[in-house]
Amino acid sequence: AITYFQTRLEFTNPLFTNAIPDSLVLVLGYDTSAFYGDLTQPFTMDVLRLQEEIDQNDDFYSDTSAFFREPPVGSITFTPNDLDTVTFINYLDGTPDTSRETVMRIPLDLQLADELINLDTTAYDNDTSFLNFFNGLVLRAAGPTANTIGFDLFDNRGGMYMYYRRD
Questions:
Q1: How far apart are CA 70 and CA 66, in angstroms?
Q2: In this structure, what is the dihedral angle of CA atoms 60, 64, 69, 72, given to the nearest 10 degrees?
Q3: How far apart are CA 104 and CA 108, in angstroms?
Q4: Cβ atoms 139, 45 nearer than 8 A
Q5: Residue 2 neighbours by CB under 8 Å, 6+ apart
Q6: Whole-prediction pTM value?
Q7: Contact by Cβ (8 Å): 124, 130
């Protein structure tokens, strides 16, 4: 099983001056209605970088494939019937709003975080500029599995989150 997808900017022009990345995490919301098979068996998933552009106006079918870069920028092994919940605190409106969500958190390579921090600032002007540098990601089942896992790529908690500090 393999899925290709792109990320978009939550906001433009982040302040990365003198930034040092702590971590980069891919967060995916589950679609538990799309789970199949023996959910007591471990599942391993790799995250890779998409090598080519995806045109959202194109039609994609189950036999469509795209080029991606090896090695993976992230990997995780988990048991689907033992899903973890994460506490989210939303400060966007000034008042903390706390909720617990069942999501997958996959740590990504810090080298990718370094690349994102060191991009020319114009790459963060808009989604089109960003996608000129970063084509997207690929989720791939690593080896044969006894199950299939579903993710909601439009979940509002999902995304690629970078945690960093500034000198």
A1: 13
A2: 90
A3: 13
A4: yes
A5: 65, 138, 139, 140, 141
A6: 0.84
A7: yes
